[in-house]
Specification:
Layout lengths: L9 H12 L4 H8 L3 H10 L1 H26 L5 H11 L1 H4 L9 H18 L3 H17 L5 H15 L9
């Protein structure tokens, strides 16, 4: 344990785990108990039992709240509980979207179609590769999803180029 980081006492460990178990986040529990999060992280690293206790406490809080939602949803007058859960559990399918908003699935299809179009319409391999690489960089810059699709297109373009002379049209 680092010299400048004071260990979390056994009593603080119990109280910290209890707070996580009812749904408090680590920051709130630490502030309430006067424990720096660095202390908690260091103690978790050197004390696997404490780490396990905290993981279980976090899971317990989530489980208890999910059980409450499940029980409430059994009553038809509480149908909104089911809607709330569906919107958060599977937002791609159930969350409300503004008109004209694209889903992640639609964006992935768009990326795939744009990549295919570049691969099909650009006749010089170097131009294809440069455009697809740039396209991958743009996607990576806005969140990274879809790079695999562009990478697959780059690989396909490279495979197709292997059967042609460099710099020559396909």
């Amino acid at each position: 344990m680092a010299m400048d980081i004071k260990p979390v006492t056994e009593e603080q460990q119990r109280e910290f785990a209890a707070m996580l178990g009812i749904g408090c986040d680590s920051e709130t529990a630490g502030k309430f108990l006067g424990i720096a999060l660095d202390q908690v992280h260091t103690t978790r690293e050197v004390d696997p039992a404490f780490d396990s206790r905290l993981l279980r406490a976090e899971a317990t809080a989530e489980f208890n709240h999910m059980r409450n939602l499940h029980e409430a949803a059994k009553d038809p007058k509480n149908w909104r509980v089911s809607v709330w859960w569906l919107e958060r559990h599977a937002p791609e399918r159930f969350a409300q979207r503004a008109p004209g908003t694209l889903t992640t699935r639609q964006i992935h299809r768009l990326i795939d179609k744009l990549s295919q179009t570049i691969a099909e319409e650009v006749t010089h391999f170097q131009d294809q590769q440069r455009l697809l690489t740039r396209f991958a960089e743009i996607i990576d810059g806005i969140g990274g999803e879809g790079v695999a699709e562009v990478s697959a297109q780059l690989s396909a373009a490279e495979d197709a180029a292997d059967s042609h002379e460099p710099g020559e049209p396909r």
